């Protein structure tokens, strides 16, 4: 058996009853993010260094906004901010001069509804009645045992168990739940002893060659067209006080389309490997592609750097690994 995680999207059946509470939590996430972002800026100005995740948690655990959410939910907000700063710093170090540090989550005097994450200590799951009890922070409780009781609905083929995280996500019109579950998947015997080699690229997303001499090329035109169209649409709708609602929806749509492309391509490659009786897939190691022979950031020019740093080869490799493992194929 292969132990892995799966994220299931769920509809909130009693949305009208819990939406106000989820709104409060979503606004609280934005407020805590802004408090932490301001603190990080001050530390940066005073010391020239960005505070770490541990520093943020230590300095802000007694802040009033920290108690608006369950402690683990507040911790996740600070973790996400630290991850965003690390991602930005890594891009700048690798030569992406267009990369910007994480911004504030505010439009005028309003705070957007940010994603709220509950970890295991903040979740009680009633699988019999498809209900989730999600903890509130001390400041948002009306009484000691106050909580958010969500009734959810998933696809008929989904069994929700071993929940690790629950994320409440505002999709622009309503809240939905993303349930992160630990699952065990039966692993099949390898379909054969053959080997396939994969070469990842930017213009052409990948090329694959099989032992029998057959080879296939998969262009990345769809990804490039989506990136061009949706990025332009996002900039055209940028508001005076940050991204507009339409710009945020545009980002979300681009992210969903990219995820769908990568999932569909990884699934197709695995199916092709099964047909060719492949037991092993060899894929190029691109972990140091952004560095030159001296370990310095590789400079491909302004346009080339944007392509290089937007290349999600590690994301595709991760998807391919777990999809292949289910069928006994090693990557």
UniProtKB/TrEMBL annotation:
<dbReference type="GO" id="GO:0003677">
    <property type="term" value="F:DNA binding"/>
</dbReference>
<comment type="similarity">
    <text>In the C-terminal section; belongs to the transposase 35 family.</text>
</comment>
<dbReference type="GO" id="GO:0006310">
    <property type="term" value="P:DNA recombination"/>
</dbReference>
<dbReference type="InterPro" id="IPR001959">
    <property type="entry name" value="Transposase"/>
</dbReference>
<keyword id="KW-0233">DNA recombination</keyword>
<keyword id="KW-0238">DNA-binding</keyword>
<feature type="domain" description="Probable transposase IS891/IS1136/IS1341">
    <location>
        <begin position="178"/>
        <end position="290"/>
    </location>
</feature>
<dbReference type="Pfam" id="PF01385">
    <property type="entry name" value="OrfB_IS605"/>
</dbReference>
<dbReference type="GO" id="GO:0032196">
    <property type="term" value="P:transposition"/>
</dbReference>
<protein>
    <submittedName>
        <fullName>Putative transposase</fullName>
    </submittedName>
</protein>
<dbReference type="InterPro" id="IPR010095">
    <property type="entry name" value="Cas12f1-like_TNB"/>
</dbReference>
<keyword id="KW-0815">Transposition</keyword>
<feature type="region of interest" description="Disordered">
    <location>
        <begin position="90"/>
        <end position="114"/>
    </location>
</feature>
């Amino acid at each position: 058996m292969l132990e892995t995680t799966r994220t299931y999207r769920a509809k909130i059946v009693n949305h009208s009853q819990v939406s106000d509470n989820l709104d409060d939590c979503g606004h609280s996430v934005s407020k805590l993010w802004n408090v932490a972002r301001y603190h990080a800026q001050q530390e940066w100005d005073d010391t020239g260094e960005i505070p770490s995740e541990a520093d943020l948690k230590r300095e802000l655990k007694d802040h009033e906004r920290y108690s608006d959410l369950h402690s683990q939910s507040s911790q996740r907000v600070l973790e996400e901010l630290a991850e965003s700063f690390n991602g930005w710093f890594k891009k700048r170090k690798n030569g992406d001069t267009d990369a910007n540090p994480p911004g504030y989550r505010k439009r005028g005097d309003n705070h957007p509804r940010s994603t709220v994450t509950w970890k295991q200590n903040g979740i009680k799951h009633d699988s019999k009645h498809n209900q989730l009890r999600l903890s509130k922070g001390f400041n948002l409780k009306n009484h000691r045992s106050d909580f958010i009781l969500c009734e959810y609905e998933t696809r008929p083929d989904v069994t929700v168990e071993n929940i690790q995280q629950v994320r409440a996500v505002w999709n622009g019109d309503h809240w939905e739940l993303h349930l992160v579950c630990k699952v065990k998947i039966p692993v099949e015997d390898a379909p054969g002893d053959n080997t396939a080699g994969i070469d990842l690229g930017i213009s052409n997303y990948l090329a694959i060659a099989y032992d029998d001499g057959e080879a296939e090329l998969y262009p990345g035109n769809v990804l490039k067209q989506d990136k061009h169209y949706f990025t332009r649409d996002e900039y055209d709708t940028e508001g005076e006080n940050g991204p507009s609602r339409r710009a945020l929806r545009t980002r979300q749509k681009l992210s969903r389309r990219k995820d769908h492309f990568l999932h569909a391509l990884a699934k197709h490659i695995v199916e092709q490997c099964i047909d060719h009786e492949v037991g092993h897939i060899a894929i190029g190691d691109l972990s140091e592609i952004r560095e030159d022979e001296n370990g310095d950031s590789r400079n491909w020019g302004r346009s080339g750097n944007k392509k290089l740093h937007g290349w999600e080869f590690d994301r595709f490799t991760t998807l391919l690994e777990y999809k292949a493992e289910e069928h006994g194929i090693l990557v």
